[in-house]
Design a protein that fits this description.
- The chain is α+β, with helices and mostly antiparallel strands.
- The chain has two domains: 156 residues, no CATH class; 136 residues, 2-Layer Sandwich (Endonuclease, Chain A), CATH 3.30.870.
- The chain has eleven helices and 13 strands.
- The strands form three sheets. The chain has a seven-stranded mixed sheet with strand order 7-13-12-11-8-9-10, sandwiched between helices.
- The protein is elongated.
Length: 301
């Protein structure tokens, strides 16, 4: 198995199997991302709805004790407790899905690069396990693992070569918002949103991204906007109703078309499509430039 290293740390050595899942300790993930474990845990708490149990969960004492027996970083003290943890503060672990979610939320510059290496390590571990057990223990479990590995590689391919079309069916609210966060997190400088109907959920996303955001809309709750602007200064609003469709423009270079208002993502079947037509992008940007003046008027209202 090819070894994946970060700062001379072999990532595969940090992956454990708990409850039938491959996981990494929160402290190990924080160390790779070069942030404090406390800071990482705070990110999870602020975005707890994004981390269901199959993304992140707390170990029992027995599970923590078992991990300590093979980890060079987690050891036991004389009282039998896991060093650095008591019953109240048992460690948390992340599955590969949890690690992927973290990469879009952490504000560390190194997070995106490290995340790719960690995900590759998860994939490599699954291949290694499948290749070494298939001949001796063929069962439904192994079949499902192989099938899952194939699906996971498709997800990983998506990270390298983003799909142009994303179709979501009724009820896929989490998946839709997750993709929206992934799209917005691509931004290095600016984000432009065109959507006539927005609510404070989109402001919550912008608070975590902290990039310059320009919103063209005809309807956003004034009270929500005022509360947001008391703490954050990265959003400007142009009040305009000349657009029907919804668009996202990243760094004035990447254009997406959205079939549903961002406040209704996942409530009905819709699609998000990456548009490769530079002429459309240029025309939209020219149109927005002509709308720049009304910003001051809206603020005065």
């Amino acid at each position: 198995m090819n070894e994946l290293m970060i700062n001379d740390i072999k990532i595969e050595d940090l992956i454990y199997e708990v409850r039938g899942k491959q996981v990494m300790l929160a402290s190990d993930v924080a160390r790779l991302y070069q942030v404090e474990t406390k800071a990482l845990n705070q990110v999870v708490k602020r975005n707890i709805k994004r981390f269901p149990e199959d993304f992140c969960f707390q170990l029992t004492f027995e599970e923590a004790h078992k991990i300590s027996s093979r980890s060079q970083f987690v050891t036991l003290n004389k009282s039998g407790n896991v060093r650095g943890y008591n019953i109240k503060y048992l460690p948390y672990v992340f599955t590969e899905h949890g690690v992927m979610m973290l990469s879009g939320l952490l504000k560390s510059d190194i997070a995106a690069k490290v995340n790719v290496a960690i995900i590759k390590a998860f994939v490599a571990m699954r291949k290694y396990i499948a290749n070494n057990t298939l001949e001796t223990r063929v069962s439904n479990i192994e079949t499902k693992l192989i099938d899952y590995d194939h699906k996971f590689e498709l997800i990983f391919d998506k990270m390298d070569n983003e799909k142009v079309h994303h179709l979501f069916f009724n009820g896929a609210i989490y998946d839709a918002y997750s993709l929206l966060c992934d799209i917005l997190s691509q931004s290095q400088e600016s984000i432009l949103i065109i959507d006539n109907y927005l609510d404070k959920n989109i402001l919550n996303v912008f608070a975590s991204i902290q990039k310059e955001v320009l919103i063209v809309t005809k309807n956003i709750n004034k009270k929500d906007l005022e509360m947001y602007e008391r703490q954050y200064q990265n959003v400007k609003i142009i009040k305009n109703d000349s657009f029907h469709d919804r668009f996202i423009i990243i760094d004035k270079m990447i254009l997406y078309h959205c079939g549903a208002s961002f406040k209704d993502l996942g409530k009905k079947c819709f699609a998000i499509t990456k548009m490769e037509d530079n002429e459309i992008l240029k025309n939209l940007l020219d149109k927005i430039d002509k709308l720049e003046y009304p910003i001051k008027k809206l603020v005065e209202e």
